[in-house]
Structure formats: C-alpha cells, structure tokens
Amino acid sequence: MSFINKHSTLFQWTLLFVAFFGLIFAIDIPEGYKFIRAQAEFSVIEGQSEYSFLGTTVRYSFFEFLWRLPPWLAWLPIWVNDSIYFLLNDWMPMEFWDEDIQEYKTRPLVLQVTRVISASLLFLIEFIREILIGGVKTVVTFTSWEWIDANPWAELPGIPWTIVTAGAVLLGYKLNGKGLAIFAGLTMVYISTFGQWKPAMETLSFVLVAAPISFILGLSLGIWAYRSKRVENALNPILQVMQTTPQYAYLVPVMVLFGIGDHAGALATIIFATPPMVRLTLLGLRGISPEVIEAGKMSGCSDFQLMFRVLIPTAKRDILIGVNQVIMQCLAMAVIASFIGAKGLGWNLLLALNQLRIGLALEAGICISLIAVLLDKMSLAWANKQTDYFANLNFFERNKISLIFCASIFLGLILAYFGSVYFKEGYNYLFEVPHNKGISTEEFWDKGVDWIWETFFYPLKVFNTWLIVDVLQPMRAAFLRMPIVATFVLVMGTGYIIGGLRSALVVGSFTLFIALTEWWDRALVTAYMATVGVIVSSIIGITLGTICAQNNSASKFILAVCDIFQTFPSFVYLIPVMMLFGVTDTAVLIAVIVYATIPATRYTVEGLRSVPPALHDAGAMSGVNNMQRLVKIDFPLAFPHIMLGINQTVVFALFMVIIGAFIGTEDLGQYILKALSDKQGGGKGLILGLCVAFIGLAVDHLIRTYAEKRKKALGLD
C-alpha cells in the first residue's frame, strides 16, 4: 500500500492502460463491420434502423453500444442545412430597390445582407486589383462605360511593376535597413521576371482587403473583451474553437451563404484571421502596468482618450504582432480560398497540382513563400520599430523616403511610357511581364523530378511500400479496432489523471460529440495520422532543439529557419512530397512531420534558453556534468514550455492532415473537401470542422492543464 501511495500516478497510469487494452481484446468486432469509409450517405440495407428527430428521418445500421455509438447527431447537418435554407429563402422578406430593373423586389433579409456584404468586398478587391494591374475598370467603378467612351483620356493603366518594386524597397529600408530593402527588391524582381506578377498582385489585393478588416474587427473585439469580463468569457470558447477549426471547414458554410468567388474567399479569410488579432489585443491591454492606467486617469483622460491615447499606444507592440499574425493567416488562407474561386497564386498552384505539373506548382509555391516571408519580415520590423523623433530636421530630411518614392513613381511612369514605344510591336516589359513571356523554370523542375525518380525510384518505392504496409496500415487498423468504450476509458482516464474530474468531463464531452456523429471512423483515421505525425515531429523537434540550444549561434540559426518555414503557407509543403512520393499517405505524413516539427523545435530552444544562468552556475559548482545539468535542471524547468510547443505541434499536424485530403487521405478532411462540391454540404462542412476542432481542443486542454500543473509544482507560476 505504501508503494501505491508513493507512486500513485504511476499506479493510475498502469491501471488505465490495463483497462484500455483489456477492453480492446475483450470486445470482438461485430459481424458485418468492415474497415471501410464511414457511411456518410445513408442507404436502406438489411439490419438498418431509423428514427425521427425534429421532423427529420435519420437512418443507421445495426450497432452495439460497446463497439460504436449510434449516430444520434446525424440530424445535425441536415438541421443546419434546413436552417440555412430557411434563412436565405423565407425568413423576414423585405422590399428593396433594384437599380438594374428600376423597381422594388422582395428578398429575405439574410440573403439581402449577404449580397450587400459580397458586393462590398468584391468592390474593394476589384478596386485595389485594378489599381495594381488593371486599367479602365478603375474609373468605370465610379462612372460608366458611356463616360469612358466619351472621354478616352480617362483610361487609366495599372501601376507598373517597377513602381511597386521601388515602393517595396523603400518601405523595407525604412522599416529595417538595407537587408530588408534588398530582399524586398529581389522578391519583386523575381516575381515579375518569372511572369507571376498578375497572380501575385491578385493575391496581394486579396490580402490588402482581408487583413485590414480582420485587424479592425479583431481590435474592436479585443477592446470590448478588455472592458467587459463577460464578453471575454463568452469569446474565449468561440476563439478556441475557431483557432482549432481547419481552413477547409470555413469554406463550406461561406460558400453556401455567399456563393463562390473572391468575395467568398475574402470573407472566409477574414473569419479565419480575426481570432489571433483578438487574443493579442487582449494580451497587450492586459499586460499594461496599473501605474500607466492610473497616470492616464489622473491626467483627466476620458474613457475614450484613455483607451486610444494611453492604452493602445502602450500595447502597440503586441497589437502590431497581431497584425503580423493576421497577414500570415490571410496568406495561408489565400491558397485554401482558391477552392471556392479566389484568384491569384493560390488558384495557379491549385491548377498546377490538379494537372500534376510539379514544376509549375513549385514556381507558384516559391512566389507565395517569398511574399509570405517578405510581409512577415516587414510586419515584424514595423512592430519592433522605435518611434522616430525629428528634432531639428528640415522638411527634406524628415520626408526623404516619401520624396524618393514620389521620384520613383515619376521615373517608373517615364520608363513605362518609353517601354510602350520601344515594345510597341509586342509586350511592354517595363509595365508587366506576361506569364507566358517571363522566365520559366518548369522544365528544369520537371527534369529534376524525372531525375529523382530515375535515380531513387527503387529506394523511394521500397521506403514508401514499407511505411504504408508495415507501419501506417497496421496503425490505422489498430485505431479503427478500438471499441468506443475503450476509447472513452482512455480519453477520460487520461483527463482524470491529469486534471481531475473536470478535465475528464471536458475531454469526454468533446469525444462524445464526435462519437455521436456519423464520422467516428473517419475521426479515428484523422487521429491516427495526426498521432504518427506528432510523435515523429516531437522526437525530431525536441532532439534538434536540445542540440541547438547548447550554442548561441546554433540557436539563432535554427530559430531563423523556423521563422522562415513557419511563414510558408501550409499548402506549399505538399508540393515537394508529392514530387517524391506521389499521391499517397506517405506524402501527407512527411508533409505533416515537416510542418509540425517547426513549433516543437522552436519551443524547445526557447524553453531551454529561458533557464536562468544562475542555476547553471549553481549546477556547475555542485559538480554536475553537461548531461546531468540537461536532465536534472534544464529539462524539468523547460518542460512546461516544451509542452506548449507539443500543443502547437498537435494543431499544426491536424491542419496539415486535413489539407492532405487534397491528395487523397480518407479522413475527416476528405469529407470536408467533398462537402465543397455538395449543394447541401454547408451543414456537413460545419459539423466536420467541429469534429476536427474538438479533437484539437481535447488535446489542447490536456496539455495546457498538465503544463500548468507542472509550473505550480516547480514554483514557476
């Protein structure tokens, strides 16, 4: 008994695993059950039952409660679809004036609101897009074709690529000196000379609309949550669900409500990019010293003045880091939004991957990555930039960057004009390099792919076959073999050991929701892919982070590499793995591992580097060697930080697994992708997204609870 009391946690874990595996071996697989795709579409078969819920008939096959729960929530997607249909077609009809036919029409309120939002977003996107790459439509937006026909002088060209490049260089120089300026210039020149200017500007116009709206919305909600504890408590669970919901899941309901096109993609992007802005705004405002607030109040500031003259300027750095996160989220979503018609580099990338033109996909992917890195560096430099104070500077010294930019505009316009004369028989390359006239490396990359396949075909095939047959398929079968009761024992038992009864009920509720849907088997497949990815990523990330943390130069280098790789949109990671392993589960798994290793590495380095040097000195004086110091001092103190990295690794892995549905995985992501082409897919997409989010939230709750528990035990709280 004394041994049990001394090692109570070990005893609890042992008992849990004995019960879990005992249930697995005790419960047989029911007859007729096969490891096949979950029945998303019900059909009348022998042994099938049905029930009615809220006027909806739900059918399900014969079940055993110990093996699988009946899909009692199968009505939920249908109910969501019916609700959306009712809102769009029947709820609160209203009259509005139609300018096209010059008479009043009747339209439901929600439908009218969605159309107004769609038209507004599309106007903003097209307006910016035409300024960058368009022409006459910019003026037509405000006038009419008849006016243009009567005034041909008003036809406006887009901005030449030379002017945009000059602006990027000057902005980079102003924000962070010569290094960022050179990188900005090289990025813009690369995009232009490779004929990717038009799709790049389409993507940029998309970001320039979605990012400011996300910023304003996130800042407003963050301020509201700061001023009201009730609002903060109401927003927290919503934000948690939104940040763990995969990008695909946002597309389906948005497409149902708003149609397809740039406006729908922009709206999905705004929804996806707003949560980090809310959280960082709230974090910045909560971190302000009470002395600053008191000083503002003593100065006679009103609530408005206190917020916008004192608090927000003080929390500027956190808010600007929120802007950085918004921009990165917008770029990541810009690729995914191409599934519902958003134009730009993401659309080109999607077409190239559909046609298996790896070289062309790599060109688009490199351009997306360069833009992502550039915007990331610029926004972070903006966040870290100190305020410049002009003491005794004259007008020209204070505004030299702006004046140089004006001169660049003038010079760019002159070059574009002379280019139109010089290239009058062809394309004006000083204005824009067309896609089919720029440099192309597609043939080079295609030859590289062919060479890789010819040189390494046999070892790649052997590795691919071994991984799928001997590792992935058995693990997939093992996950699908788990009875529902055993899964609940494992999940809730883990929650109880880590955080008590409350944690057990929280993770049990998340699991129960998934179990009562019709996609439990697909959720198990998603869990198996994410589990393999997280295990391998964590091992690689912690090992690499531990090695690099021992040296300052290595730490800086690996953190810089993580920064670069983390800015890449997740879709980009699919290109090289498809090149090597084709359309297989191996390709998805490798992409998951590469993508999810980033946070594991970063948090390990940062955690180990955060250990106070005084403790190292104390350890050295006590005679411990480097390995003892690492095991006895560094790892225990850095462990809570490392666990937060594992938490991010889980989220990254889940997102990449869902994106991997594009190349054929049979998980929840596959059904989300199918819902995009289904007229009645709004409800399915939303519930499937919630299933993925609940997997992430269950793991997030367990890891955070355990990390907080360890912090208290170490006295770090």
Describe this structure in words.
- Helix 4 (109-133) crosses helix 11 (262-286), helix 9 packs across helix 28 and helix 15 (345-354) packs antiparallel against helix 16 (358-384).
- With 717 residues, the protein is mainly alpha-helical.
- It is globular and about 90 Å long.
- Among the domains are: 209-357, Orthogonal Bundle (MetI-like fold); 530-714, MetI-like (MetI-like fold), CATH 1.10.3720.10.
- The chain is built from 28 helices and 4 strands.
Lay out the secondary structure.
Elements: H1 2-6, H2 8-26, E1 49-53, E2 56-60, H3 75-89, E3 93-98, E4 103-108, H4 109-133, H5 136-140, H6 145-150, H7 161-193, H8 197-227, H9 229-244, H10 247-258, H11 262-286, H12 290-298, H13 303-314, H14 316-336, H15 345-354, H16 358-384, H17 395-398, H18 400-422, H19 442-480, H20 484-515, H21 520-548, H22 552-567, H23 574-581, H24 585-609, H25 613-621, H26 626-659, H27 668-676, H28 681-714
Antiparallel strand pairs: 1-2, 3-4
Helix pairs in contact: 2-20, 3-28, 4-8, 4-11, 7-16, 7-18, 8-9, 8-11, 8-14, 8-15, 9-11, 9-28, 10-11, 10-27, 10-28, 11-14, 14-16, 15-16, 16-19, 16-23, 19-21, 20-28, 21-24, 21-26, 22-24, 23-24, 24-26, 26-28, 27-28
